[in-house]
Amino acid sequence: MQASLLNVQGEEVGKIEVPEKVFGRKPNAQFLHEVATIHEVNLRRWTANTKSKAEVSGSGKKPWKQKHTGRARAGTIRSPLWRHGGIVFGPRANRGARRTLPARKAKEALAQILSDRFSSGNIIFLDKIEMTDPKTKNVAQILKNLKCAGPGLVMILDAVNANLSRASRNIPTLALALAADLNAYGVLKARRLVLTAAALEKLSARWN
């Protein structure tokens, strides 16, 4: 499989070979939904917390004797049956339902969503990007040349570029990502991808 390779001026400078095992898969909506759900569950912050009978304030003394009072039996005022008592089966901060995603499923999901973005023409392959001055206007001009400016844009790099990171801070619609850290959920949230040739090589190596 081949795709057009552009430079920062938006001109086609040749073709680039894209591996079919990464960009030629058939997406399965149900499978991708399952993977996205696992990512969202793991992103959730389990902060809600209720106190059990052992944690609420109050005496542990038996309120009254067991028999011959005419009242119901009671062992503690902290009982869940009492006002201000403990909570039964309430949310607990230490009961986070973190779910694991097998590595093979994670790779398959990433390949499927990359294939979907590629088949719909939402991936731009860039030969290289060099940023000597951390200026936002330079990055904005590159995006304009590539005709990809807009919300949901992710630029995938092979390594950290400090100048590019600084220059893109003031562009809220642009996010930077490393090929080694890319996952299916991040690509699902993106509308368009800009992938450098070096990043493509590093990304493809994950399937070798």
Describe the structure.
- With 208 residues, this protein is α/β, with parallel strands linked by helices.
- The protein has two domains: 2-45 and 99-207, 3-Layer(aba) Sandwich (Ribosomal Protein L4, Chain: A); 50-90, no CATH class.
- The chain has helices at residues 20-23, 29-43, 103-119, 136-146, 162-167, 184-189, 197-204; strands at residues 2-6, 12-17, 123-126, 153-157, 174-178, 192-196.
- Strands 2-1-3-6-4-5 form a six-stranded mixed beta sheet.
- A hairpin with a 5-residue loop joins strand 1 (2-6) and strand 2 (12-17).
- The radius of gyration is 27 Å and the shape is elongated.
Task: Give me the secondary-structure topology.
Blueprint: E1 2-6, E2 12-17, H1 20-23, H2 29-43, H3 103-119, E3 123-126, H4 136-146, E4 153-157, H5 162-167, E5 174-178, H6 184-189, E6 192-196, H7 197-204
CATH architecture field of the largest domain? 3-Layer(aba) Sandwich
The fourth-level CATH homologous superfamily of the largest domain is Ribosomal protein L4/L1
Tally of helical segments:
7
Assign the CATH class of the largest domain.
Answer: Alpha Beta
Low-confidence stretches: none
Give me the secondary-structure category.
Answer: alpha/beta
Shape: elongated
CATH names the topology of the largest domain as Ribosomal Protein L4, Chain: A
Radius of gyration: 27 Å
**Order of SSEs:** EEHHHEHEHEHEH
Number of domains: 2
Instruction: Calculate the mean pLDDT score and round it.
Output: 92
Strand % is 5-15%
Strand order of the largest sheet: 2-1-3-6-4-5
